[in-house]
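Data card: per-record layout.
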Amino acid sequence: LFESFAAGTPDALVAVLDPDVVLRTDGGTEQPERTSILRGSTAVARLVLRSARPSASLRPALVNGTAGMIGMIGDRPFAVMGFTVVAGKIVEINAVVDPARLRALDLTALDG
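The structure for this 112-residue chain is written out next.
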């Protein structure tokens, strides 16, 4: 799962996404234009690839007790994503991209 996102290719992403996947992003009050709901594996894969940052790294993480990832640039998070997985496919992605909420995160567990 994580490797497919990290690979950053459309086919690898679509392969792990349910055809009816739902992506919800929360941009918060600082970036309300980034709050959205997107449906469909092709549309979600395109957005993920379009949003990719060359200087970014992705780290697997537990997000609210489920599989997820934290997108980092250096030591600062730019996104936290939680996944709902059913039968080996991601059916939901809930992503926080709100700068205020991301600044408040305690990511000390990632250092070990």
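Known properties of this structure: Residues 41-51 form the longest helix (11 residues). The first strand starts at residue 17 and ends at 26.

See the next section for split statistics.
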